[in-house]
Amino acid sequence: MSRTLAARSSSAPPPFWQQLPKVFTYPANGDALVKIAAFGIGGAVALRYFPLGVLWYALACLGFTAYCLGILERTARGHLVAARVYHQERTDRDWRPVKQIGVVFVFMFAVGMVTVAMGQVAGQVALLAVSLGMPASIMVLALEEKMSTALNPARILATIAGIGMPYLALCAFLFLLLESGSLLAGVLAKVLPAFASLVVAQVVTMYFMVSMYYLMGYALFQNHEALGIDVQVESAEAQRALERAAGTKVPADVLGPETRGLVADGRLPEARARIEERMKREWDDNKLHDQYQKVLVLEGDTTALARHVNEYVPKLAREKKLARAVDVYEAGRKAVPDLLISDSTLLVPLAAQASELRRDKTAFELLKGFDKRFPESADIPAAYMLAAKILLERMNDYGMAQKIFAHLAKKYPQHPLAAEATKLADVAGRMAAQPAPG
C-alpha cells in the first residue's frame, strides 16, 4: 500500500522522520550503554591482546548484532521506549546474526556475478538495488528469522511497498547514520593513541548501530497494519509511552476521574458498572477493555474475567493482534488458573503465536486437551503438529514428539500434515535413540 509523507493520525506515534532526536538518543540509556561498552571494549581488547583475537572479536560482533536485531524486533512490536534492562526471552540460540552475514554475502555475490556477466555499469545498478533492498531484508530477517525469507525478492518488495515512499527517506537516514558513525570514529582515531582509537571506533560504531536498528524497527511499527505485523503494544499506548519518556504529562488511563476515584476508593462494583456502560458505546476501544480486565482482577470476579477474556481475545484476533491476545490470555490465566478459551478456531493460531514469542508454556496450556475438548475439530492435526514441533525443536523431548507425530500420521493418514508428521516422527525417533551427551 503506497504511503506519502503526509501526517498520520494523532493517536499514532509520530513518523520516524520526526523522531530523529529520539533515534540518536535511544542508545544513551543504561542498558544499551552497558552493552556497547561491554562488546566494544571487550572486542577491542580481545582483538589486540588475546590469542585468536580475531575469532573472539568476531564473536563479540555477532553478539552485539544479535542485541541490535533484538532491539529492531522489540521496537517493531511496539516497545518504542528503551527498556531499563533488555531481557532476551527466547530459549533457543539466535542465529539471526549469522544469517544476516549470509544475506550480505549472497547479495554481494549476486552483484559480483552481474558485474562479471554484464559489465561495470550493470554491476553498479545491481549494487544500488541491493543497497536499497538491504534494510528491508534485515527487517524481514529480524521478524521471520529465516534466511530464505530475507532473500525472497517478493518479501523484500512487499516490505518496501508496505512502508511506501518513506522507505526511500529511511534508506537515506540509515546511510547518513552509517556515514556519520564512520566519520566520527575516523576523526577521533586521528587524535587518540592507537589502542584508545580502536576502542573509541568500536564504541562509536556500535552506538550508531543501535540507532540504525531502532530506526528500522520504528518504521516497521509505524506501518505494522500494512505489513501484517503482530504488535504487543497498540499505537495509542505506544504514543503515550513516547510522550511520558519525553516528560509530557499524559493521562494514566482512559477512565474518567469519577471512575478512577471509585477504583482508588475500592468501590470496584460501581467502577465496573460505569466501565461496562461505557463499553456498550465504545466497544472498539481496546484500552477500555484493558482497564476493565484490571478492575475484574482487582474485584476477584473470576467468572466475569473468564467471560471477558473470551470476548476480548476473539476481538483482538479479528484485528490481527494475536501477540496482544496472548498477553490478555496470560494475564487472565494468572487470575483464573483454569481459564479456557472456548472458541476452538482460536486455539491453534494463539498457540502458534505464543510459540513464536518463545512462550512455550503458554502454547502448551492453550493446546492441552484440545482433541478431547473439541473431538470434531478440523484443527486437531494442526494442534498435534504444533505441540510435537515445540517438543522436538525447543524442549528436546524427542520421545514424546515421536509419539505425537506417529499418532498424527496414523490417525489422520489422509491429512496434508500426515506426510510431514511421518518424516518428523522418524527424525524424532533417531534423535531419541542417540546417547545422551556426557
Protein described:
It is a single chain. Mean pLDDT is 83; it is low at 1-11. The protein is an all-alpha fold. Helices cover 73% and strands 0% of the residues. The protein is globular, with a radius of gyration of 25 Å. The N and C termini lie far apart (55 Å). It has 22 helices and no strands. The chain has a domain at 16-98 and 128-232.
The number of distinct helices, counting runs of at least 4 residues, comes to: 22
Low-pLDDT stretches = 1-11
Distance between the termini: 55 Å
Shape designation: globular
User: Structural class per helix/strand content?
Assistant: mainly alpha
Kindly state the percentage of residues in helix.
over 70%
Keywords:
globular
Write the layout of secondary structure elements.
Blueprint: H1 20-25, H2 30-49, H3 53-76, H4 96-118, H5 120-144, H6 147-150, H7 153-163, H8 166-191, H9 194-222, H10 224-227, H11 235-245, H12 257-264, H13 268-281, H14 286-299, H15 302-318, H16 322-335, H17 344-356, H18 360-367, H19 370-373, H20 380-393, H21 398-411, H22 418-433
